[in-house]
Amino acid sequence: MRFPLHITMDMLAHQARQAILRHRRYPYVLMLEPLYACNLACLGCTPERHTGKLADRLTLKQCLRAVDECGAPGVSLCGGEPTLYPELKELVAQTIRRRRHIYLCTNALLLDEKVFGLIPPHKRLTINVHLDGMRKTHDRVCDREGVFEKAVAMIRQAKRLGYHVMTNTTVFKETETSEVRALCELTKSLGVDGMLVAPGYHYETIQRDMFLTRAEIQKKFRRILGFSRHYRLTSTPLFLEFAAGLRDLPCSPWSTVTYTVRGWKGPCYLIAKQYTHSWKEFWEETDWEYWESRQDSRCTNCAMHSGFEASAVREIRRSPKDLVRMAAWNLLG
Ligand code: SF4
Ligand code: SF4
């Protein structure tokens, strides 16, 4: 199965519970950013995410309150670099105790020092390694030589130690799709359990000309869609079809909510229109209908996984054909 059975069952149970409660909008994933410090300063990252000030971090209590309040079954631990978070071990243990599934999103540089031997493999823990290309590209995007080599070595070690490992690749303007395919081959040979491929889209505070327009996204993703079935991609075929311009979808910004050192970030992972420390205020006062419609100019080129994967999954309910395709994709992947 592409997604382990317990994750699939948890997600289905979550959706069934929300349907019984007649909730139309609800979070699937919490992006938890407990700190802004990072040991890299990648070209595509906001400066605020690698301030280097470890003191500016959420307390363990604040993190767990966010997990409880939003109720999402998936928790993506990001940052900054989450392996630098001093309370990581306890955060992972307490989140697992709450029966959530954790994606530890990391550049992998410190896995041997901060995770292996300290945080044991668990079926509810996935190590999600950021890999934006093969050696030359990845080191350029990370603005440091040797990052790719270390990340690959850490993936090998993680697999040997029994961790569930995924990779996360952002496709930028300069990314050749042949390189994405080469990366798919590499992750396959490493025995990686899943690979997320998504288009890069600029954050408000980044001005670099490395992000794709909608037309560029569609061109690249048509090619990626073409070879995707040969690999364990976790981006759903429906999402890839959307990214390739073959189907249209509304956004579901509420499906992936983001909690940071500055509070709940709204309306979405990309647009920081406002931060609030109150979950209730964030959830009830964000104009979800407006952001779903994508009428804001900042949404024009966006095909972010965090906004549209849930919309793709919702489409399944309308089409028995898509339901069968998705079931086969998960079961046979
Ligand atoms: S590793 Fe992640 S958080 Fe750190 S600079 Fe790179 S993209 Fe930003
Ligand atoms: S389309 Fe993109 S930028 Fe706009 S609300 Fe959705 S995720 Fe955010």
What order do the strands of the largest sheet run in, or round the barrel if closed? 6-5-4-3-2-1-7-8-9
N-C termini distance? 5 Å
CATH superfamily: Aldolase class I
How many individual helices? 13
Order of helices and strands: HEHEHEHEHHEHEHHEEEHHHH
- Please tell me the overall pLDDT: 91
User: How large is the radius of gyration?
Assistant: 19 Å
Largest sheet: 9 strands, mixed
Class by helix and strand content? alpha/beta
Ligand set = iron/sulfur cluster
Write the layout of secondary structure elements.
Blueprint: H1 5-20, E1 29-32, H2 60-70, E2 74-77, H3 88-97, E3 101-106, H4 111-114, E4 125-130, H5 135-142, H6 147-161, E5 164-171, H7 177-190, E6 194-199, H8 214-228, H9 237-243, E7 256-260, E8 263-267, E9 272-276, H10 279-285, H11 288-292, H12 305-315, H13 320-332
Parallel strand pairs: 1-2, 1-7, 2-3, 3-4, 4-5, 5-6
Antiparallel strand pairs: 7-8, 8-9
Helix pairs in contact: 2-3, 8-9
The protein binds iron/sulfur cluster (2 copies).
Give a quick summary of the entry:
The chain is built from 13 helices and 9 strands. With 333 residues, the protein is of the alpha/beta class.
Give your account of this protein's structure.
This protein has 13 helices and 9 strands. With 333 residues, the protein is α/β, with parallel strands linked by helices. The protein has a 9-stranded mixed sheet with strand order 6-5-4-3-2-1-7-8-9, sandwiched between helices. Strand 8 (263-267) and strand 9 (272-276) form a beta hairpin. Bound molecules: iron/sulfur cluster (2 copies). Residues 38, 40-42, 45, 49-50, 79-81, 107, 130 line the site of one iron/sulfur cluster. The site of one iron/sulfur cluster has 13 residues, from loops.
